[in-house]
């Protein structure tokens, strides 16, 4: 049986020795040096009283030192919480509610806010630089993580107003195949051969970024950093062979290569994350960039579910290497070719939502996870997605629920009813399209609605387009028919007397 996580990471770094494993800001770090950083940070955390089960939040950039801090927190058995950029004040407070320690590489530490709740002021804030200054005894760190403890809370996008946290145990992280080449599914084995230089950006709090980073180390590759990542410049400058990419960024990269091509001969893999990619777009990417796109499908709750290689038919997500059932609304398994909701079981899936027993019972059922996605398996076992059970908009690969956005919009005094649907967006993949029935005698402006939603839910949830309608079309069951809305089925009202209103379909970038 594999050693408790993160023992496999320590083994990889130890085996790497003097081989470079990380390049950051002109600095090259070997496996031995990175392992030494893990030892020092672990020692520092324990000196400050971090024990198994303690909540430790990481407010860090993307660097080898930040990577060492993540692994050290797991060696100490902490419940690790990553703080990603772009959180509202309320969302940050939610993530820090059960945290006793914050580790940061920011000079100002954790900024104080007027009116912040007492726990935010009372927790210990530890500077990463001070932890790294601890002496290195050269001994392998003793892993004190316990299998049943929560290893990390992986937060969803927070579109319900406050982020939901998927709780992944140390046992689940140990069961993951990422660090064990002998257990890699065929698509991952092929991908691993292309991870010579994996471009890391954004945040190591990202589940996707961290998993591909660990996979790169297991494949003998090097992590290289660029933040923010300007594509294709960063790919060329850092000689990156692989990177994670969203649909919107892939579309821009393809357009850029058509207009002003640069030498991307060293690029061998782009791991598509987030929104599904239309088959036509995938064919275009292959024509311009070559056979480099690996189309992954997974969820925060489950980790990777399936992956299509460049050789797979466009639109397919490959053959899932995990347990997957397609079920009808009554929960009965469906035969190949029939569409239904996807239920999956993965080795590293979350145990549930942190302190959300009701939601956990709804999504985690008898060892299976309800994906709330629709799809089918073909006769060869390949997975095809066909829709979403959930009413969501995916912005920059993050899922945002329509209901909370609609409720915030409805609080505006000029809004009688509000409905939200996804609209394609060249910059973010999808964006929020708000359909609003104005209150009598009034008409809201897009700018003020964007400000309202941004203040409550963050900028990603703010509507990019606004259409005023006089009534919402209904399904035969009497529910709002958002498909008809998106197809123009809502009738636009005449503007109230003396009141100017935005034209239907107004785009905020044009204002």
Question: Could you characterize the architecture of this molecule?
Answer:
The chain is an alpha/beta fold and 511 residues long. It folds into three domains: 7-175, 3-Layer(aba) Sandwich (Rossmann fold), CATH 3.40.50.12780; 181-388, ANL, N-terminal domain (Rossmann fold), CATH 3.40.50; 392-510, 2-Layer Sandwich (GMP Synthetase, Chain A, domain 3), CATH 3.30.300.30. It contains 16 helices and 26 strands. Strands 2-1-10-9-11-12-13-14 form an eight-stranded mixed beta sheet, with helices on both faces. The model is unreliable at 491-511 (pLDDT under 50). This is Long-chain fatty acid--CoA ligase. Residues 473-511 are annotated as: Disordered. GO terms for molecular function: acid-thiol ligase activity. Residues 405-479 form the AMP-binding enzyme C-terminal domain.
Choose one word for the global shape.
Answer: globular
Q: What does the radius of gyration come to?
A: 24 Å
Helix content: 25-40%
The side-by-side strand order for the widest beta sheet comes to: 2-1-10-9-11-12-13-14
Which features would summarize this protein structure in a list?
511 residues; alpha/beta; Rossmann fold; GMP Synthetase, Chain A, domain 3; 3 domains; 26% strand; globular; ligase; ATP-dep_AMP-bd_enzyme
Describe, in short, the structure shown.
Residues 473-511 are annotated as: Disordered. With 511 residues, the chain is α/β, with parallel strands linked by helices. It folds into 3 domains: 7-175, Rossmann fold, CATH 3.40.50; 181-388, 3-Layer(aba) Sandwich (Rossmann fold), CATH 3.40.50.12780; 392-510, ANL, C-terminal domain (GMP Synthetase, Chain A, domain 3, 2-Layer Sandwich), CATH 3.30.300.30.
């Amino acid at each position: 049986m594999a050693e408790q996580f993160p023992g496999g990471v320590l083994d990889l770094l130890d085996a790497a020795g003097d081989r470079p494993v990380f390049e950051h800001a002109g600095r090259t770090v070997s496996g031995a040096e990175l392992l030494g950083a893990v030892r020092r940070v672990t020692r520092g955390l324990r000196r400050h009283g971090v024990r198994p089960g303690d909540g430790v939040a990481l407010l860090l950039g993307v660097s080898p030192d930040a990577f060492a801090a993540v692994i050290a927190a797991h060696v100490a058995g902490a419940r690790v919480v990553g703080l990603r950029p772009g959180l509202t004040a309320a969302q940050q407070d939610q993530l820090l509610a059960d945290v006793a320690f914050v580790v940061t590489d920011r000079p100002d530490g954790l900024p104080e806010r007027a009116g912040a709740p007492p726990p935010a002021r009372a927790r210990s804030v530890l500077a990463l630089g001070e932890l790294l200054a601890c002496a290195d005894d050269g001994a392998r760190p003793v892993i004190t993580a316990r299998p049943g403890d929560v290893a990390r809370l992986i937060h969803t996008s927070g579109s319900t107003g406050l982020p939901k946290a998927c709780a992944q145990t140390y046992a689940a992280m140990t069961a993951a195949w990422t660090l064990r080449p002998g257990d890699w599914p065929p698509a991952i084995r092929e991908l691993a051969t292309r991870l010579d230089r994996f471009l890391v950006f954004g945040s190591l709090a990202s589940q996707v970024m961290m998993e591909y980073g660990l996979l790169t180390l297991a494949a003998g590759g090097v992590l290289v950093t660029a933040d923010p990542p300007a594509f294709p410049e960063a790919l060329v400058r850092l000689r990156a062979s692989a990177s994670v990419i969203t649909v919107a960024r892939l579309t821009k990269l393809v357009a850029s290569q058509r207009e002003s091509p640069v030498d991307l001969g060293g690029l061998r893999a782009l791991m598509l994350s987030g929104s599904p990619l239309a088959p036509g777009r995938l064919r275009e990417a292959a024509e311009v960039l070559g056979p480099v796109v690996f189309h992954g499908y997974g969820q925060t709750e489950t980790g990777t579910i399936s992956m299509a290689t460049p050789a797979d038919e466009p639109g397919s997500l490959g053959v899932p290497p995990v347990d997957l059932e397609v079920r009808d609304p009554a929960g009965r398994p469906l035969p190949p070719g029939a569409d239904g909701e996807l239920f999956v079981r993965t080795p590293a899936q979350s145990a549930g939502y942190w302190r959300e027993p009701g939601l956990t019972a709804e999504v985690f059922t008898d060892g299976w996870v309800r994906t709330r996605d629709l799809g089918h398996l073909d006769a060869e076992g390949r997975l095809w997605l066909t829709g979403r059970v959930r009413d969501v908009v995916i912005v920059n690969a993050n899922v945002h629920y329509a209901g909370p956005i609609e409720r915030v919009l409805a609080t505006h005094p000029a809004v009688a009813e509000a409905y939200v649907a996804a609209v394609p967006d060249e910059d973010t993949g999808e964006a929020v399209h708000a359909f609003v029935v104005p209150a009598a005698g009034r008409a809201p402006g897009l700018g003020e609605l964007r400000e309202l939603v941004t203040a409550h839910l963050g900028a990603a949830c703010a509507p990019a387009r606004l259409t005023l309608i006089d009534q919402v079309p209904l399904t035969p069951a009497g529910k709002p028919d958002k498909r008809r809305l998106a197809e123009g089925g809502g009738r636009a009202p005449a503007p109230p007397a003396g009141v100017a209103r935005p034209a239907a379909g107004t785009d905020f970038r044009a204002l």
